[in-house]
User: Fold these one by one.
Assistant:
Number 1:
Amino acid sequence: MSQQPAPQLPDPARTPLFYQRGFRSVLTQGIYVALTAIVLAYVIASLDLREFGFGFLSEPAGFKVGNQWLVDVDGVTNSRITMYLVGVWSTLRAVLVAILLATLVGVVVGVARLSSNWLVARMAMLFVEVFRNTPLLVQIVIWYAILLVGAPVIQNVLNVGDFLFLSNRGIAIPWPVPSDGLWGAPDWFVGIWVLALIAVGAVAMRVRAKRQEHERETGRILFANRWAMGVFAAGALISFLILGVPVSIDRPVIEGTSYAEGMLVQPEFAALVLGLTMYTGAFIAEIVRGSIQALPKGQTEAANAIGLTGYQRLTLVILPQALRQMIPSVTNQFLNVNKNSSLAYAVLFDDLFRVATIVQNKAGHALEMFFVIIITYMVISFAISAVMNVLNARVTAHRI
Amino acid sequence: MTSEDTASSEPAPPKISTEARPEPGTMVPERLIGQPDIITVSHVDKWFGDFQALDDVSLSVKEHEIVVILGPSGSGKSTFIRCLNRLEEHDAGRIVINGIELNEDVRNLNAIRSEVGMVFQQFNLFPHLSVLSNITLGLRKVRHLPRLDAEALAIQLLERVGIPEQAEKHPAQLSGGQQQRVAIARALAMQPKIMLFDEPTSALDPEMIKEVLDVMQELAESGMTMLVVTHEMGFAREVADRLFFFDEGALVEEGTPEHFFTSPREERTKLFLSQIL
Ligand SMILES: Nc1ncnc2c1ncn2[C@@H]1O[C@H](COP(=O)(O)OP(=O)(O)OP(=O)(O)O)[C@@H](O)[C@H]1O
Ligand SMILES: [Mg+2]
């Protein structure tokens, strides 16, 4: 084969340094670093850092914190950092519950907005417009007012079958608590049981995988799911009995003018969670609606053509696909729940921000406290993002 | 009425009247004589707002018959076959399929969806499910078959359409022709008596059209009743028992391929065929 001679080119002209891409990038980054350093130096120079330090956090708190759950601190012997962590725990609870409920509300309302039933679709639209277009602070305060003023005083408590009580002190419901059980077990037996449940769950998953594998190999039906559930139920029951029934259900009772036993959902917590749930739920509903509408119409038609019912079409074809689209936007909403939870301040719910403010009032050290607050919120946000990224990676494992 | 208004303001398109049509059966090829009608469509109208998409369509299709539907873009071909499995609801007239009247009765709707399979131009596979799950979904959720039985059937169908090795892949990992064959397998899984195809090869590259047409031809030879909207004239000529020509929502002409390709009667049919042949 004859090769064509390579065409001759004149030597390339050298690009002047200032026009070289590499130099440009070093230059802009250098300018950026220099400017940042100047600003930082100025800020640090103007701060009074003689008192800077976090030692004050380990001193005794000297104040009480409300809305405690699963913890019991009086603030007399406890340090300020302990009280702060109790506040963090309260924030985490509210954020977690609100995220779960908001997702539920969002999916239901979002789907309802697309309902062919006129009334259902209109009600869903009304919900979205009301909760999306009013300030969250106002909503939380209104929920609080409803719960305080609208609910009966404790003397006239609303008693639902000695099971659930509702008054302006909050809602009391039955709750499992550690108990002495058959052989006077200490409280931490519950912990052992929880660990046992996790272990049994892992075993059940193994059984399921093994059976499914066998099914595939032998072609015989081995009821993998039923076996897994059976193994789990049996394991849970046996470990429960061996540990001597370490859990009992605590029913709420009224003692004088306060609740005892059971679990008390206080009005502050309820108002905050309701506000966050409805507000965020309205936004998530719009995300759900948008991602369902963004799906090709052919998906609905194909589902109809093979005879799926409306509910099957939604849960097996539409939502699984819409969910993938939704995750990034929904993650933003979850991060907003975290940040918006600081509005707890308005209803005197002792979240991390409110406790931090109390610490700062007592001990000064505003700079350090702001630092701690910001870091805490950022850590929670990063945790939420991390979980959602894992979820996103899992559902988008297959390109669609 | 709007229909009268439009009819009087524009020159009415020439229509073949039901009376002028040949006796039922005379146009039917020999191999189908004596077969019962499986689809009967009588005076069907369909409106989108004040646009009439189907205009007094009447026809019948015999069991095991292969029908190809032709017509210019916007003539109502898709609308017509979508009415046959009630993806669209007709506004007037009657459609009876294998004895089931297409009407408001939801029991009939469920029944019809299992009698009639459909293959779409854009495949419409479920992208989040594997090929196997695409096929087993209806079997498991509508037919309530155990998973293993459903999977065995799905593998059989994938063998029939020539791609058993693709079972574990997701639709996005397949070529267009393979996707369309999966879509055919998915429709066949429900064991329909009738298969509808809406331009099944129009979204495919030329080299993939044949693999889909081959599957359709095999299906036709197996005795399936098929209604196919297509511009593949080779398929129409070789496989179809009868051709229907639609224009402006009306059934303008029907006949055997021989009739169509040698001596079409209507001017509009001639014009259309001269454009696409
Ligand atoms: N959902 C709808 N809403 C309003 N008009 C519609 C709708 N679906 C179809 N049409 C109209 O009805 C007419 C017939 O449409 P149809 O899709 O049945 O045509 P077609 O013969 O399949 O054409 P093509 O060859 O382009 O697929 C067209 O004018 C179209 O614009
Ligand atoms: Mg069409």
Note: Residues B 48, 51, 53, 71, 73-79 surround adenosine-5'-triphosphate (ligand 1) (CB under 6 Å).
Number 2:
Amino acid sequence: MNIVRTLLASLAMTIPSAGVGAENPLDDAKTHYAAAAYEEALSALRRAAGSPDVDRIELEQYRVLCLIGLGRTAEAVDAVAAMIELDPRHVPSPAVASPKVRSLITTVRRQRLPGIIRSVIGRGRTALEQGAFEEAENDFGLALALVDDDALREWPDREDVRTLADGFTALTTTLRRRAAAEAVQALPSKPPAQRPGERHADATSRTIQSPVAPPAGLAGVTVQPPVPILQTMPAWLPPDAFASTREYHGILKIEIGIDGRVKSARIEDPSHPAYDGRLLHAARQWVFNPATRDGQPVESEKVIAVQLHPTR
Amino acid sequence: MHVVGRQGIIGTAGAEAIALPAGRHELEFRNDDVGYLERRTVDLQAGRTTRLHIDAPAGRLHINALPWAEVWIDGRLAGETPLGNLEASIGPHEVIFRHPELGERRTTVLVTLKEPARVSMDLRQP
């Protein structure tokens, strides 16, 4: 038990016997940290790291604080880097971190953010090339937000990179709108004929509706649709020769929870009996970044048009 | 700090001179509260005062504050929290915590050789 020995008990905090009775491993670490028991706090953080529910960013933040307290600056720098990797936008507020701590974090962010921004733009470009417009927009938006970070005020490439990210954002918006318009045009019509020599994936999906309507009467509420993290379509394996020469269409509707997982999936319009069951099974494994309303995760629905292409 | 001779405690270091018979004496300087013990041998001559200087060794000190604070130890700026592994001579030290918005608090911490002393202050508490 770590008890601070004080002579002026009226002013001093009594340090509790940290670790006793704490249920959340991070709470344990916080208690040790508050008591200036940095080594014990680091041990508690190592234990907390094994918990699937722990807030990783907060964990790294406390690791940074403990290592700074112990004067283990090189390790503190590594912990700051880990924190930046988890969320490059995260900076402890002045309300919780001293100028000394914030200064170290700013120094590391100044070194690391340019590389992260380039990486995010590269990831956005890949998403754009794959037609994943929402992911691309998210990445370019993140890059723009990071470029404007105070830590990068002196970055000589700042304006060039902002111009680059701005250009990609505009390009993505244009391509997304064009694709949406094409999708709307294609919906009520017959499926497009396969042109000779054109290759298709055997089964493709297209989001045709992802409503996250703001509450009635709340103008100005910002809503963001769910963004797929894992949305793999099962392969189309035609059960017979006839089916392999035909094209089928169907509609799938899913409900996405605030944790990004699919709460329910149902076939609104069957595509083929040999495919719909497998599609439902796969859909229940999909994972999304949940839709948000004013930044808060909300449940949402997604309606997906399914197209099974001829395999012969 | 007690001065201990063959016959037991004979005085306190830093206080008035201790009268002892001339000759060789094995003395202990000890403070059990801070875990300090040092032995010295002195040869005393009749009619003369012999001075002994004891350098207080340093112990370690960890200091923290919520949300954070600038810390002064015995009137000297030690830095901003979190602070750890500070060296301070054994014995009591006055620690002042200052925050630009939450004001100032002070306390005293006893630094020992037994284990690092820890002191913290929650400036958010009234």
Note: The radius of gyration of chain A is 26 Å.
Number 3:
Amino acid sequence: MNIPLPDLTPIIPEIIMSIVTCALLTVEVFVKDKTKDFLGIICIGTALAVMYMIPMSQGVTFGGMFISDGYSSYFKFIFLISLILTILISFKFIQREDAEFGEYYSLLMFATAGMMIMASSADLILLYLGLELMALSTYILAGIKRHDTRSNEAALKYFLLGAFSSAILLFGISLTYGLTTSTNIYQIAEHLKQGETSITLLIAMIMIICAFAFKIASAPFHMWAPDVYQGAPTSVTAFFSVGPKAAGFAVIGRVFFIAFESLQMDWTAILIGLAILTMAVGNILAIVQTNMKRMLAYSSIAHAGYALLGIIAGTTEGLNAVMTYLLIYAFMNMGAFAIVILLEKGENIKDYNGLSKSHPLVAAMMLVFMFSLTGIPPTAGFIGKFNIFMAAINAGYTWVVVVAVCFSAISAYYYMRIVMNMFMKPMEAEAKIYPNPANGAALLISLLMVFIIGIMPSVVIGYTFQMFM
Amino acid sequence: MVPLEWYITLSTVIFIIGVIGFLIRRNIIIMLISIELMLNAVNLSLVAFSHYLQDLKGQILVIFVITVAAAEAAIGLAILVSLYRNKAVVHTDKITEMKG
């Protein structure tokens, strides 16, 4: 029997990522170098090469299982940006934290490869495999500080709830397969257009929503996020708050907009509830936090709520707004985490008291990122929120947007509290910082992008869409 | 021939036992076992669907689920072992360093 080789062009970026990562794992054992920095540099190089290759590798392959189109390319761009920024902020930090194992970079690469597969999958089997590749790598990353009990605890909590949610996803996939006789999302859509909806199908869809809501840390499936974000090393936390969240939105967009298109009324109703609950929980609980990483965890929960509004809108405009929002969120959140890493003691919110007196430049940068996270012009965060809210209003969900704006006003309290601590409170102790070129580069990229997107959004967003879509 | 409904009912019951076990037990090993139970319930329903639909995709997914479950168990136990070395507990009520 002659089996023809499938067209490998669309999947070349993932293949390159995986091969380089496996090679790094092997090379790392033999190299007696004291620092592992060269591994990180190779990873950044690979990520840039893959980013350059993505627009050229469009197409469908493996019998319609794997799709590389504009939508997936844009998300892959976000994943690779978050990977590069994470590696840049990791270099000296993981040495300081005593977490410098060679596997660190390989696991980051594997997680990114998993996200890329998720964004490109047009089949629930492939989606599950990509999700597990991402999830298994991130469980280990959370616990990479083996001798630290907090890191262990974070990894364990993440693992238990992650495995639980993927089992729920599988049950949903299994029921969908039984009812529609296929796992391909386009065939599922065809099948659902003809038949009437049954209660079993709704249960299957709700189970899939639950599993994805877990990945984007949406309430009521957010319980893991604060603990994991606090316990994991800060650089890993920065990666968690951007990459897996964007991957979750990528699959939500694909599965709900295509496979469950005929059930739009039902999933919109569920997602409105989730979005409002997520914004409420994220914003209100963030107010009482005293730990910076926990506060940023709740803030990332709240941001998942805003981004869900774009999905609720159910239009192409909404989906584009979500993609833009996630790109902007990647820059501003990575920037905030880069500052937390820059400081010797940045975990406690009290550590920021009087930072503007000892390190005015650092305080000024933090101010920009906090303004951007709040959504104040002329920073990028404003553009992101504006697009999302406009898309939801145009789709007729004005009351949801009103609720979102109210919660957004609440969020100003806890972001501005950091600013107030830095600029208005007296200095308690001279804060020590660890500047290094890589972290500086990450900060500079984030800062520039926050301003460039904020001041001329149409140019940057238009360019990225034109390049990848 | 055994009707499809019986298989699906059985798998749903096993899945719910797994969910309840995960939610109410506080020993991490038991929680891991509950997750395995949930995954195997899914496998059962997938194989049943695959047989009744005369379609191989379900069985392909089962093979993948078994593989991933093995990897997941390996990672879960590794995380548990590293926690046990530092704290010597396998009870979730005792692992409460972070709260809020």
Note: Residues 13 and 49 of chain A are 9 Å apart (CA to CA).
